[in-house]
Amino acid sequence: MSQDNTKSSNHADGQNDKYVPPKVWVQDKDNGGKFASINRPTAGARHDKTLPVGEAPLQLYSLNTPNGVKVNMLLEELAELGLKGAEYDAYKIDISAGDQFGSGFVAINPNSKIPALVDHSNKEGGEPIAVFESGAILMYLAEKFGKFIPLEAGKARADCLSWVMWQMGSAPFLGGGFGHFYAYAPEPLEYPINRYTMETKRQLDVLDTHLKNSEYMCGDKEEDYNIADMIIWAWYGQLVLGKLYDAAEFLQVDDYEHVKRWAQKIAERPAIKRAVDLPLQPMV
After folding, report:
1. Domain named GST N-terminal: which ranges (predicted)?
2. CB neighbours of 21 closer than 8 A, spacing ≥ 6?
């Protein structure tokens, strides 16, 4: 009797009442999701592939997904300023083809995720510096060139880093949670879609409440525009502008008027227009 009640309750909640987790999980079948053919529970290189290296001091290996666009934005903003040493070559890592598991890419990012960057600017015998994780790359470049990040300890820097870390902690719920179950899962499931939709809308409300009284994430002046805006815009700005998951109507993004105002203003910047569709050289 109790078993029947449990199954009935699970079914009412939109869960699959036939699945019972085993005592020990094993990967014994394809889950049918969009990236099922490349997903494995192990790390490391799967094939030998040397990364191409161009002539510019900075070498970017990425894809124009939200995580990749973050770094594109900063590199193009630095290019807009004409800074010497900020020149870069950008190469496409096709994650659907498994480029991220090539030996060269794994050597610079053991987590096999885009983006990754290598700084070859030390021409006096120093080893190239590899940086992975989008937040780390943004901080590294902003501090290297002294642009788009407050450098002195104090409120301005604390605000910037707080919002950068907010994005790093929040976006997985948007991308890996909402985006996956809404757009990429093999079939729609009510419970995870509801769970991650609620969290995504809560995050949008956090941003909307903050931006009600602030032109940018960390202030009202043009000089307050910084990597916090870039890292958040790549996910949440594109989301409210209807660029992610075809989910603008579902999420009622027009309700977040302050986020939309902020997102539209940043989208009009010449560097950002270039960044979202950045030409990426093929891996050859």
Report:
1. 59-149
2. none
Q: How long, in residues, is the chain? A: 284
Last residue of a domain, one of 149, 175, 197: 149
- Say which residues have a Cβ less than 8 Å from residue 80's Cβ, sequence separation at least 6: 270, 271
- Give the containing element (helix H, strand E) for 55: none
Instruction: Count up the domains in the chain and report the number.
Output: 2
Amino acid at 193: I
Judge whether 115 and 138 are in contact, CB under 8 Å. no
Which of 99, 103, 160, 167 shows the shortest CA–CA distance to 133? 167
Torsion 20-24-25-28 (CA) sign: negative
Give tens-digit pLDDT for 165-208: 999 999 999 999 999 999 999 999 999 999 999 999 999 999 99
Task: Tell me the pTM.
Answer: 0.91
Q: Which of the listed residues 149, 184, 199 is the one where a domain comes to its end?
A: 149
Domain range for 88 is 58-149
- The whole-angstrom separation of Cα 21 and Cα 68 is 35
